[in-house]
Design goal:
By secondary structure, this protein is an alpha/beta fold. The protein has five helices and four strands. 60% of the residues lie in helices and 13% in strands.
Length: 285
């Protein structure tokens, strides 16, 4: 059994760790509150833009725009949004494993991975499919300008670099306790079965000018939504992980205190036995 000094030192060390995990949980909770609000607000706008874009893509007139083209051959791109830091439970590993399943399922196709975030770059660094999106960065706070830049780069890949599909991969925020890996095909715009075929849009000004604005806006909105969803999910996962770490620290401290009490009792018992033994030895003299 370890000495009492060692046990006390261990308890103090874990108590300090618990203070850190509690502080990190509180920080993540504060960040989550803001990120969650932004996600919920962005979803309404993004869903409507996506609905309009899907309607344009499925319209029998087939409006003329390079991002509405459907290709039979070409490469398939997956842009993976991960975190820059760890300590967020299974946030990154669950998404990376989901991506592995897709790679197995589509092993016969020409898949290219674009990891955004340190954790996904580290995970996929030895994959032959991994590439780097030069000039694209995702900061700790989602920025619409960064989303616009990413949308432009992905649009260029689709139009000029021979890609037939563009997918965004991120953890979709469901609740503070649940974040699901999500694969969002942004190009070509997927068909929507919920569309009302009899709905016709009245364009003002002419349709060509409107389409030229709507489709790029759709790309910007989808990339920005992915950034917001990923960041809210990261804060939620980190909050839950730090809460679990704090609880585990409390359990360990409780167990160590029991061990400490037993060690002190054993020490006291030994000291009493030595005293009694000494008294008996004096009596015999």
């Amino acid at each position: 059994m370890k000495s009492i000094r060692d046990i006390r030192s261990r308890i103090k060390s874990i108590e300090n760790t618990k203070k850190i995990t509690r502080a990190m949980r509180m920080i993540s909770a504060a960040k989550l509150a803001k990120a969650q609000q932004k996600v919920l607000e962005a979803r309404l706008y993004a869903d409507k833009i996506k609905l309009i874009a899907a309607h344009l893509a499925q319209d029998e007139h087939h409006y003329d725009h390079p991002l509405l083209e459907e290709k039979q051959e070409g490469k398939v791109a997956y842009v993976i949004f991960s975190s820059e830091r760890g300590l967020c439970g299974g946030y990154n590993i669950n998404m990376n494993k989901a991506m592995d399943e897709v790679l197995k399922r589509r092993s016969q196709e020409d898949i290219i991975l674009f990891p955004l975030g340190k954790k996904s770059r580290e995970y996929f660094k030895d994959y032959p499919q991994a590439r780097e999106l030069v000039g694209v960065m995702c900061g700790d706070k989602p920025d619409y300008r960064e989303a616009r830049l990413l949308a432009d780069v992905l649009s260029q890949l689709f139009v000029e670099e021979g890609y037939k599909e563009i997918h965004l991969v991120y953890n979709r925020f469901v609740s503070a306790m649940r974040q699901d890996p999500f694969f969002d095909q942004v190009l070509p715009i997927p068909a929507d079965s919920n569309l009302h075929k009899d709905v016709e849009y009245i364009f003002e000004p002419e349709s060509k000018q409107v389409v030229l604005k709507i489709i790029p806006k759709y790309m910007e909105t989808e990339t920005f939504r992915a950034m917001l969803e990923a960041k809210a999910s990261e804060h939620a996962a980190r909050m839950a992980a730090m809460d679990g770490a704090s609880r585990s620290a409390e359990d360990i401290i409780h167990d160590l205190k029991l061990i400490l009490n037993r060690a002190r009792q054993e020490q006291i018992t030994n000291e009493l036995a030595e005293i009694v033994g000494g008294v008996e030895a004096l009596k015999k003299q």
